[in-house]
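FAQ: What does the model actually see?

It sees only this:
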Amino acid sequence: MAWAARVLGIAVRIVAKPAGQCGFVVHPRRWVAERTLGWLMPHRRLARDYERDPVMSEALIRWAVIGQMARRITRGRPAQRPGRRPLEYLR
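And it is asked to produce this:
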């Protein structure tokens, strides 16, 4: 937490489970991390930690997020499906 405050200039707050809680309860802001991981897990190379170099892992996460953002940007437009392929391509 000290490193995040010093280097990144952000404050990290750990959301702890309330005393006496039974069962599942959504905690404030904790779902944001779970949701983000849920968005990244469909990307095959991020499902397991295959990479040896942390820089490569970071690059793959950035690539996955760029793809997610591109899908969101184009979501408001009507779907465009490719037309029929000309017959000369099917031979």
